[in-house]
Structure formats: C-alpha cells, structure tokens
Amino acid sequence: MGKSTFSIKLILLGLITGLVNGLFGSGGGTVLVPGMFFILGIEEHKAHATAISVILPLTLVSMFIYFRYGIIVWDVTIKVALGGILGGYIGAKLLNRIPSNLLRKGFALFMMIAALRMVF
User: Fold this and answer.
1) Fewer CB within 10 Å: C terminus or N terminus of the chain?
2) H/E segment holding residue 30
3) Residue 25 carries which DSSP code?
4) Taken in order 88, 89, 95, 98, is the CA torsion positive or negative?
5) Domain regions of the chain by residue span
C-alpha cells in the first residue's frame, strides 16, 4: 500500500470516527479499533491504545459544541467521569495482559450486547 493511499485511509477513518463520535457519542471503539485492525493492519493491542489516544481531541471538540448548546447533564457527567477514570486506569493496566484472541472476542461480544440492547 502506497504512502498516499495509507494517508487517505487514515483521514477517511478519522472523518468517519469524528462523525460517529459527534452524532452518537461513540467512535473510538466502534469505528477506530476495527478500522485500524482490519483496514490498516495495526495489531489489536496497539489499535485499542491508539483509539483511546484519538478519542481525546474528538471528545473535546464535541464536548465544546454540546456545552454551547447547553445539553450536558453535569452532575451525571462528573460522577460517571470519576468512575470512568478508575475504570480507564484498570483497563489500561490490564490491556497487555489479555491475549489478542481473547481481546478480539471480548470486544466483539461487548459490541454485540451493546447493539442488541440498543435495538431492543
């Protein structure tokens, strides 16, 4: 794959991720991880870690716009963020201890359960 083709794939993956993040509050895991793994060929552990790194700037942009529209529920945000910080720390520490095949299956199972809960 040529360098320009790879760059175009990166930009398109970022654009799709940003759109999904802005519309649905998701994108890092749902779009980036499979995109980096299947389309770009990035190893799974690195795809998960890179997705987390990409999410921050996307989240800040979306949060700024949501803040301007006054649609953030701050008391919920603060409490969930506190739990999320602890969970993020534990998850980041555990990531390299989980074999790739189990990580992929666990991620797929999580995505399927989330999809089913959204539909039903």
Assistant:
1) C
2) none
3) S
4) negative
5) 3-119
